[in-house]
Amino acid sequence: MDMEKIVSLCKRKGFIFQASEIYGGINGFWDYGPLGVELKRNIKDAWWNDMVRNPPPGPDGEEIVMVGLDSALIQNPKVWVASGHVATFADPTRKCSGCGKFTRADQLWEILAQCEWMNSLIQEFTPVTGQIDTPRLMKWAQGKGKKLAPNLALVKNPQVVLSFLATRVNGQPDAPPELMEMTRYFATEQLHATGLQDPCPLCGGPLGEPKPFTLMFETHAGTEKSDDTKVYLRPETAQGIFVNFKNVVDSSRVKPPFGIAQVGKAFRNEITPRNYTFRSREFEQMEIEFFCKPEDSMKWYAYWRDVRKAWYTKLGIKSEKLKPREQGEKELAFYSKACTDIEYLFPFSEETQELEGIAHRGAYDLTQHQNASGKDLSYFDEAAWAVYDKSAFKGDKKREQEEKAKFRYIPHVIEPSAGADRFTLAVLCEAYSEDTMDGETRTVMRFHPRLAPVKAAILPLVNRDGMPEIAEKLYRELKRDWNVQFDDGGAIGRRYRRQDEIGTPFCFTIDGQTLVDQTVTIRYRDDGKQERLPLSEVANKLREALRP
Ligand code: ATP
User: Considering 117, 210, 296, 407, which has the largest number of Cβ atoms within 10 A of its Cβ?
Assistant: First the structure.
């Protein structure tokens, strides 16, 4: 499937726009249009409803306790020192000496595989055979190459580059250069002085050594701009939860196991934002920190891993496109016992990409904040202590204190951390389809009804005989509960197509028969099937289809 078609539909129909588009846009920032905002809101509401208000029963069939939170985007900068973000929240980056721009170092070859000059150049040779067609490459260098990759060594100095490459190919006829090596030859102007170079995805120029680049956006709180007033836009919502752990426990009568959930914006100054909204600099997260006893933590980890995967399939993501990937020991953070990424096969990549991470974070975060703030963030299990048999040390205060201390612990944390924008993008990609109906090709967005931006369209078949009045009455009734549309413009077939293209699951048509027996036509988006339904049943039908 073609990503361009999805991007174009999103703009045409008002799902997603480039931020500040009339000024040429701004890299890594996106705006959601009238339909996009409904879609994303439905996603966040579905998450809140299914994870916070009514999560699936726990591993032993028990009810899960979840509460919500909405913490500030800007916190005391000490939060980000304690969490480790100030010291280590950085990605390796390489600066191009040609254009001066930066590229994320650990994703260089993935980025190159998607860049325009590379995709153009790749048409001109076949790396595995070791054959190089010098005139053809020369022609590319002097034509397309000049436009697409002006700083590529092959473009600046084709004779020298091609002669280095020829020496290499002829010198080892049994081991022709693979694509990566070949590309590095194309990027290298002075082989003897510099060795093979890696090219910049933007201009082809040589990239410098990797250096860490901190991803947190900085700003200042207050009138003065100094180190003392420096603050950070949060790069994740999670820390706002950890620093409120004590507040929530003290105010809400919750006790482990329980979770705190938050939905909100996060900001990361990504070095190479790309793949539409997939990697943006401003995005929204839907995060849970689930606090439990250390000895139960693996049980809760398995619970959340399975619950989160099931949630995506329940909302219409096909399981074959969804891959839970358990991180290997080397990939895990030092404090983490386990982590699973739930990945999705987006059309822009041959490999699945992360939608959500479910991480076992141990006692790391609460311990860090306890040490840095000096505030006790442990939990005392009052209920267990109350029923504990104390007869063996009755009257012995010292012993009692020692025994009591065993009921105090820092809870372990399981963190399912999902991206609202990434899931919105996955839903758009999954929903997009083209088929033939009544001999016509149609584009149809097959959204799950709960996520569809418009739930139903109410259509009078013709604009007379009292049909518009009945339709309008129905529309006014339904719009009190749902986002519905009234459409009386154009032939009925065209109106159905319009709704298909924005993914409206149901159309209710008021026609001649309605005047006779108070029934309407319900037309289903996915197969175009039509049935009759009493007018009085329309709201119930919709309510049933949209129930979680
Ligand atoms: P990646 O490896 O893709 O950079 P990450 O492992 O750094 O992601 P986390 O810090 O675990 O991501 O963030 C949790 C979730 O937040 C991710 O699974 C993703 O859905 C979302 N997310 C993270 N960074 C971005 C971004 N730049 N743009 C959009 N969503 C993001």
Answer: 117
